[in-house]
Amino acid sequence: MKKVRMQEYKQRIDNALSTPRLQEALHRFGDAWAKAREDAFLGLDFEALRAEIAGCKDEVRRHRERYLSEFIRNAENAGARVVRARNAEEACRYITELARERGVRTAVKSKSMVSEEIHLNKALEEAGVRPVETDLGEWIVQLAGERPSHMVMPAIHMFRQEVAELFGQVTGQPEPPDIAHLVQLARNQLRGAFIEAEMGISGANIAVAETGGLVLLTNEGNARLVATLPKIHVALVGIEKLAPSLEDALRIIQVLPKSATGQPITSYVTWIGGAVPCGEGDKELHIVLLDNGRSALAESPRCRDALRCIRCGACANVCPVYQTVGGHVFGHVYIGAIGIVLTAFYHGLDGAAEIVRACIGCRSCVSVCPAGIDLEDIILHLREVIAGEEGIGAGKSVVFKKIMRNRRLFHGMLRTAAILQKPVTRGERTIRHLPLFFSGLTEWRTLPAIADTPLRDSWTKLPQKVENPKARVAFFAGCLNDFVYPELGEDLVTVLNRLGAEVIFPEEQSCCGVPASYSGDRETASEMAEQNVRALLSEKPDYVVTTCPTCTMALQRDFVEHLKDNPVWAEKARRLSEITFDVSRLITDKLGGAEVFQGSGGDLTTYHDSCHLKRGAGVWREPRRLLAASGRELTEMAHADRCCGFGGSYSFASHPAVARRILEDKLTDIEASDAKCVAMDCPGCLLQIRGGLEKKESPIRAAHTIELLADTFRR
Amino acid sequence: MPEENRMKTFLEAAGRSGAKTVFCSSPAQAVSYLRDHSGGSILLPSFSSSRRLGLAGLLRDAGCEVIDSDFRRQSAAAAAGLTGVNFAFAETGTLVLESTEEPVRLATTLPERHFALLDPRKIFPDARSAAPVLRQLQSGTRHFVAFVTGPSRTADIERVLTIGVHGPREVHILLLEGLSDDPLEM
Ligand code: SF4
Ligand code: SF4
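YS: structure for the whole thing
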């Protein structure tokens, strides 16, 4: 079962990767959307707005029974019939039975993700009712027999020629692939269905408890027809769509279109309360309130924030994985980051088991979500849950539990690996080819060799050139710095000494544990947290510095979280968190700032923002300021903060083909910037980007910021 | 937001949304604009300011074909719909139409053109500032309130913006002083 699932998933990835047109379309959309969104939020306080949305949604989650009964009471007073459905089956049964009783033959539908969620069309067809999707994108997808690949743009994966072909099958004659013509054709064809249909089915964006009314946002105007022309209107509403008051609803209306399409507001916002007049009589309004896993989600402390979602699709639009493989791979019914979470709760863990590993952890979705959901954190948690159910794979389990937790053994093995790799490295610092089936990994980037002497072994030989140090800084190197790029440690000492700080290397430090927690092995991650807190604090440093933002986040955030219930270590982890800084911020905020560098005439340089540094630690101005002070002329590449595709084991083991595509995008942006040098603050990004540039034999130099800063003193 | 700024903001936002705005100095001017631009028969649901002006008569006198009964049967063939506006938002160029009565909904969804008569005194700065009125419109039991911002649009095929998929292709906002200053009526 699991094996078949994995194979099917791999196949879907391969198919998506071999459709460059799809990627191009998604990239172009992503760029246009990002610009429009930025303009739409211009002058508004995005953080405040999203805090308001989060607050309103959390209020509803906490008191959902109260708001549900308020909504139901008001809706019924207005003449609506309200039913609560516990699951998909109950919802489908209610609607199909209603259709049967009223002799419905055709039902016109406006876009509803909930309808997709419960597979309503299939149920209607089985009951002899013809469902007609009237949202243009949904209709196209329905004609093609597919499912939407985006929550806001259902047919974003299709092109005008394919649409013309599908429409030609409807009209029985060839139709030209002209968009204006195709839209007009849809208008004419669907008008008939609207007039004929006995039932209209819609979703709702908001259910207002205060008034018992529903709010629908559309651009096409089809929801207005669905709600007006047929005698019966069925609205399918997830219970998380509740908003306490009219003002809350207005807030969602203010934010949703901006985040979804970059529009200030949709063409239509329709407020429907109860049984309004219809023809000679009154409309029959049935509201189906669907639970289907939502209450379970509300009860999960680590995942419940997902109920804040207003379905804007932004988390997919910014996601490098979504842009590479599309919504048919990276999603189930709901797509993108939120899709992973909702799939797990609404359709079961099995449906989410593969896609939960497809996230590279770049946190772009987190930074853009208008409901303030930490999607990446929830995804990590689900990975743990799935790992608990299915195991994390025998190989990984041994590495993490037996080896990584034993520092001497782990480091001993890395040292041995340095010797064992000799035949493939031929004495060079990078691996260009690997034998046999590993070779895929060096097809698209060179790999650095494990250093002959790790930093921890050469540390005592590094001279500290500082008298009367004004600060004692402990260096947390992280595995890549320690074993792959030990020279970055030397650069760090050069720079920090010059700024008057002494650098120490607490020997007992070990891996930050992120590889284990990314694979869902929380136990090992907690153990590593404890080992490192002990090692680093024992030297009583003033500050702890890192050159790897993933390590920064581990020390600043994850250790605190892993150890929060541990009476001995919780307080110490907090203390460590407070004194930990990435190197750029340490210099700008604690060691005297950028002024010290005062260089000139450096190469034209562009800066790549590492995901965890910018969106985790909130650092992006600092390294740019330092590089500029050191005399480099800076130029911004496009998408500077888009992920490079490294993601640790993501690019080595779980999704190398996706990682490769994401890297290609990054290299294209770097090259287009005309810079001679690309700077970054993460040894993982360095491995990925330097490897990619080397493989292409590009003359552009990839370097860690600390390396470039050290250069100024050596010059 | 001062009064003139509000009008300026409204005109700009409405323009961006794809609506046309026209100042009319008298009902007669509005009627001649309608005659010139309706493109055929006009659906005219009953609303307060139209009744006060005797709009149906004025339009017929000007030679327009007016449909003011039997809306369900006749609306599919109509070229245009004509309604009033309860109030508007300057920030987004949005019109708010209390549409509980079915003819108002038919007149604003089915024809290719929607003409909306708006008294400039009823422009609020934004949606939030109009919340109390909105609450009044919904405080009765049943209600259907429509925010309309520009024409119907889609970008569902290759993300190319295309106007007029299911609703009106054209929205003309006729600004006419003296219609009504009451946001609860159209
Ligand atoms: S963290 Fe990055 S890769 Fe993961 S879902 Fe969010 S945007 Fe996509
Ligand atoms: S999770 Fe956030 S970004 Fe994603 S669809 Fe929901 S509200 Fe939008």
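YS: worth flagging: The pocket of iron/sulfur cluster (ligand 1) is lined by residues A 318-321, 337, 359-365, 375-376 (CB under 6 Å).
IM: good catch. Also The mean pLDDT of chain A is 91.
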